[in-house]
Write a structure and sequence with these properties.
This protein is of the alpha/beta class. Helices cover 37% and strands 17% of the residues.
Length: 386
């Protein structure tokens, strides 16, 4: 029997965050039973991990068009997309990071066509004005939450905050983000190699992993580095990721006199190796669904400093401290007083013991799919039996 194919929506061109979470699950799920396919924007030339997705048996469909693009060649409406791809029998796993009306139409179409899996997976927890995302008012945001709840038959979230943001008062199940802990286990040889390769042997390396966007507040890291400069002359900042704030940050680097202290590495395919090279990981985000990068860093035995807006569920060892971003001074003090004598090899064991290893999480996701298919058997719905 062929595996049941499930469409994942909400997948972008980044190597981190949601993409990392879903690929970790995809690597460990029983692919003889379930296969993942990915719907992405027709604008994307390449998506994160695309070669691996295809090697694992998945398909990437560049057939996501927004409503205002309906006059473009190749346009498919949400209903037409489902009808054009009968090979996707299982339904949809919608990865929710921001409310998009047209994204939600694919979910509604899956419900209208009676696919057995209509799952929404909340990965974010926006606050304040940002919580509206693509919605313009609190009323619209509430309407979109209700729409997502009404057109799904299963709701999961990476944290309590992410569930409340994504689903409001509707019922949901916490499904913690997990990692391949073994991939991040501390390796002194990798650390030495990477630091030598990038001339970082005698530096205090502060690391950041993520998009250079308003949510992540990466410019705050420059304030920290500027405040630290006079007290820790060997401190440098290494940034893994890209985003619209890079230009702003480059201007601030010039203004702050940090030209030789900040290194933009862009998107890299070996963040687990860079975790070995870092001395600390910093995440000053304005909001997070969980902050998975912190779990990865703790698996590598790294000391971590995070904004107090990051969910407490990210703290799985004592190596993580939460700080306000009102001022860089507490961050500087925390860096200067960090205990580096910790045996970083203990990190992987601690993360595995905390339940954040992906192997058990993949079995749990299989069980969720199994239950939905028991409730709505293939062949009795819009999804065709394999």
């Amino acid at each position: 029997m062929d595996p049941i194919r499930i469409l994942h929506l909400g997948f972008g061109d980044s190597y981190y965050g949601t993409e990392s979470v879903i690929l970790n699950l995809y690597r460990h799920i029983d692919r003889n039973r379930y296969q993942f396919d990915f719907l992405v924007s027709h604008h994307f030339q390449d998506i994160a991990y695309e070669a691996e997705v295809e090697a694992l048996g998945g398909h990437v469909y560049r057939q996501y068009y927004k409503f205002y693009e309906k006059d473009q060649p190749g346009y498919l409406s949400p209903v037409d997309f489902w009808k054009a791809h009968p090979e996707i029998q299982g339904g949809i796993h919608y990865n929710l990071n921001a409310f998009g009306i047209w994204h939600l139409q694919f979910l509604k179409a899956a419900k209208d066509l009676n696919y057995p899996i209509q799952l929404v997976h909340s990965h974010n927890a926006l606050h304040g004005a940002d919580s509206l995302a693509m919605a313009r008012t609190q009323l619209q945001a509430a309407m979109l939450r209700a729409f997502a709840a009404r057109n799904s038959n299963k709701r999961i979230a990476c944290s309590q905050d992410a569930g409340r943001w994504g689903f409001g008062g509707s019922a949901f199940e916490v499904f913690p983000n997990t990692i391949e802990a073994d991939r991040f286990a501390f390796d002194p040889e990798t650390r030495a190699r990477l630091r030598t390769q990038h001339d970082l042997q005698d530096k205090l390396v502060l690391g950041f992993v993520g998009r250079l966007t308003n949510q992540k507040y990466p410019e705050f890291l420059l304030e920290v580095l500027r405040a630290l400069k006079g007290q820790q002359e060997d401190a440098v900042l290494v940034l893994l990721g890209e985003g619209e704030l890079r230009g702003t940050m480059e201007e601030l680097i010039q203004s702050y006199g940090l030209e030789n202290r900040v290194f933009f590495m862009g998107w890299v395919d070996n963040p687990q190796e860079w975790m070995q090279a870092f001395d600390l990981l910093l995440l000053p985000s304005r909001h997070e669904g969980l902050g998975l990068v912190l779990v990865e860093a703790q698996a590598a035995g790294l000391p971590c400093l995070a904004s107090d807006q990051v969910p407490q569920e990210a703290k799985v060892t004592e190596r993580l401290r939460y700080l306000s971003t009102q001022s860089p001074e507490p961050w500087v003090e925390a860096i200067l007083t960090t205990d580096f004598s910790y045996d970083r090899r203990k990190g992987r064991e601690a993360v595995t013991a905390s339940g954040h290893d992906v192997k058990a999480s993949a079995r749990r996701l299989e069980a969720i799919y199994d239950e939905l298919l028991r409730q709505h058997p293939l062949g009795a719905t819009g999804g065709k039996a394999p």
